[in-house]
Amino acid sequence: MSKEKGQDLKPMERPQLGEIDGILLAKSTCDEWSRIQNFQAKPDDLLICTYPKAGTTWIQEIVDMIQQEGDLVKCQRAPLNHRHPFIEWARPPQPSGIDQAEAMPSPRILKTHLPVQLLPRSFWEQNCKFLYVARNAKDCMVSYFHFQRMSKLVPDPGTWDEYFEAFMAGKVGWGPWYDHVKGWWKAKDTHRVLFLFYENIKKDPKREIQKVMQFVGKQLNEATLDKIVHHTSFEVMKDNPMANRAGVPITVMDQSISPFMRKGTVGDWKNHFTVAQNERFNEDYKKKMADTTLTFSMEL
Ligand code: A3P
């Protein structure tokens, strides 16, 4: 192998994190912050909102398949991460999420992991539609840990025990899971938020996909709906190069460490949490979630 090629294969350096109002975000995102905050939303924007690893890719494919009325060829036009601009994404010299959103014709479908308090104000002012997917904290933690092991776009997670503590303390990218889900749960009382649960989509995808169809104002026949259910199953999406990040270089995401489409199940936390960790987690969870009506399924 030539020296040059060897250098190409060197894993990229992991990014540093910065902080905005106590929330950890990529430093490159913090550097773009005033532009992100001043982003001009439009009334017909639909914003897909999630905490990291809650099923963003899954709901993106569902929404796109609905928008394209089940046309698989249209859904293969680009990798998912290029179909819906990620508004707080910034990694110069690549075009930022804001650049991509500004270049996109309306009606736009955009993506964010931001907690409610950091969302650009224009989304609220324009009364946009928000599609939020929540996933139980334990499975989110496990999924995020494995993602941070394989993706050089985020910091190294350290050991599982270290990561367990960091996640509970909210010292991970996009901040605490607890405030994120509670904030968006509350927002649904005053804004146009369709709040879905990963566990429910897993349990009854047809029913949940129908809710999304209604929310985005599309009427599709039964056969198309069945096609969408099939095409967005974990097994099919795992082999879909436009969904599974197959095009991302190994130096950026090393899928031999952990695949991007990892397990796609509910309850994998049981294979990671020790009995002591589970007890500690539950006690802390009860306190942090005492002020909300929001509840989650930890298994199916
Ligand atoms: P696991 O790591 O538990 O497997 P995000 O897209 O927000 O990064 O979330 C990634 C998580 O969603 C991963 O969870 C991934 O496997 C899971 N996922 C992606 N597509 C899915 C699908 N069609 N069905 C179920 N889970 C899916």
From TrEMBL:
PANTHER family hit by this protein: SULFOTRANSFERASE SULT
Record's keyword terms, sorted: Cytoplasm, Transferase
Name of the protein: Sulfotransferase
Family: Belongs to the sulfotransferase 1 family.
Primary location class: cytoplasm
Pfam families, per the entry: Sulfotransfer_1
Molecular function via GO: aryl sulfotransferase activity
InterPro entries: P-loop_NTPase (IPR027417), Sulfotransferase_dom (IPR000863)
EC numbers, comma separated: 2.8.2.-
Span of domain Sulfotransferase: 43-292
Keyword Cytoplasm: yes
Protein's UniProt keywords contain ATP-binding: no
Source taxonomy: Eukaryota, Metazoa, Chordata, Craniata, Vertebrata
Domain of life: Eukaryota
Compartments reported by the entry: Cytoplasm
